[in-house]
Amino acid sequence: MTYIKQMFASHPVNPSSDHAVVIECITASYSCLEACNACADACLGEKNVAELVDCIRACTDCADVCLATARIMSRFTRTDFKLAGAQLRACIQACEICGADCAKHGEHMEHCRVCAEACRRCAAACQALLAEKP
Amino acid sequence: MTYIKQMFASHPVNPSSDHAVVIECITASYSCLEACNACADACLGEKNVAELVDCIRACTDCADVCLATARIMSRFTRTDFKLAGAQLRACIQACEICGADCAKHGEHMEHCRVCAEACRRCAAACQALLAEKP
Amino acid sequence: MTYIKQMFASHPVNPSSDHAVVIECITASYSCLEACNACADACLGEKNVAELVDCIRACTDCADVCLATARIMSRFTRTDFKLAGAQLRACIQACEICGADCAKHGEHMEHCRVCAEACRRCAAACQALLAEKP
Amino acid sequence: MTYIKQMFASHPVNPSSDHAVVIECITASYSCLEACNACADACLGEKNVAELVDCIRACTDCADVCLATARIMSRFTRTDFKLAGAQLRACIQACEICGADCAKHGEHMEHCRVCAEACRRCAAACQALLAEKP
User: Quick one: D22 exposed, middle or buried, by C-beta within 10 A (0-12, 13-18, 19+)?
Assistant: First the structure.
């Protein structure tokens, strides 16, 4: 479904980190970007948009951080582990904030429930990759 | 696998365009961004990187355009069809250039073969959505 | 103030297009991204946010297209003129839509007046560069 | 020159942090994105591109992080300070790595010298904003 597994299998540089863990991190980050960007717009279309301003803010921030995470983690030419660590920590923070905000609205709005799920998956994937770092 | 289908099913605004076609366009655009961003880095890791400069350029340009396409097409609150059309045309152009460049190297480099496939799929998905516009 | 002029003066590839025109296009695109991203958030903070949904949508779309334009136009290694042209046309479209929407609110909201100005400048800069293309 | 000062002066939400410091952080982040994106391409155009792979990697990573920083810091509707802090730390890391790499090549390549300057300015601006956080 996604291409990153095939890309890593043929990348000329063989990284030391576990491929399955980083692949899940990249896939979860792109998926979270997708969900957050769409959820921000869905919130914008709701009648009670004025009550969803915090949620839209959290979604747009989270989309921005997830994009940076996905792009950086997809590069294998001499990865800097300090930057990777700092980026993963920022991403976990963004996903936790957005996930908590969307979860609050999840009962009444399916798009927020789905977005909260995407955030939880992404935070977990970033945590798993961070745990591997020396 | 991706979240956009669930997001659209719960979006408060019901767009007129066919969901399956726009969903494939968004999914293919995000996937193409993923492939192009990873392929640019894989090319950068090749010994003959000096011969791959055009390919890296094409991949980075294509990643930038695909990101804009995916984000814009994911928004359903009052879509502007003129902008959607212009963006799809730019995306088709980027995918055709990158796809052709990667296809040239596809026999020797698997990451380029995969990237060319992602570009072809994205160009076709954008064409299909463009054909639907009034 | 911006770095692009210095970057082009030292770029190893000497492009055929006029530097001043492309520099203004890049500077205007980054500035428009800056204004649109900030205006979307300022609209989100307004009490009548429900009436500003179209404007927020236009701003976020415009920010996405301007980012792609700025990044692509900043690269001088074998620029593809067909892609450049298509991207500029998409950018003009996005700026015209967002500029018109923000101009409507410009009397009452200074952030929309400033954003409309940024959009007009970016559309004009893209038009000027497009006019140069063979 | 940039629009962010005007945007903040008219933003309906009045943030607690000092405007001058956050404005410099946003301006420096966008400028660093501009410099890094252009420097990556200039390096790609150099004859000794094979020796510049690390530098190109550092520039593209830094551009990605700076973009997220600029966009997030530009939003004033209920800023989450934990996320802001984590994002600033990631940005400082990216700017230090890229700045150090570009500084090594700065004597022979003007575009790397300019990029190193942009990275130093951005790291300093992020540090100054981070120092203000409670």
Answer: buried
Residue B54 in contact with residue B93, Cβ under 8 Å? no
Q: CA nearest A29: which of A68, A79, A61? A: A68
Contact D6, D93 (CB under 8 A): no
Residue D106 backbone dihedrals phi, psi, to 5 degrees: -65, -30
Taking the complete model, does pTM exceed 0.95, yes or no? yes
**A52-69 mean pLDDT:** 98
Residues A34, B75: contact at Cβ < 8 Å?
no
Cα dihedral sign, B22-B25-B29-B30: positive
The per-residue pLDDT for range C72-91, each reduced to its tens digit, is 999 989 999 999 999 999 99
Interface mutation target, options A6, A105, A110, A122, chain B, most CBs of B under 10 Å: A6
**Which chains does D contact via 3+ CB–CB distances below 8 A?**
A, B, C
Assess whether pLDDT exceeds 70 at residue B24. yes
C51/B51 Cα distance (integer angstroms): 53
Q: Which domains does chain B have, with CATH numbers?
A: 18-132 (1.20.1270.360)
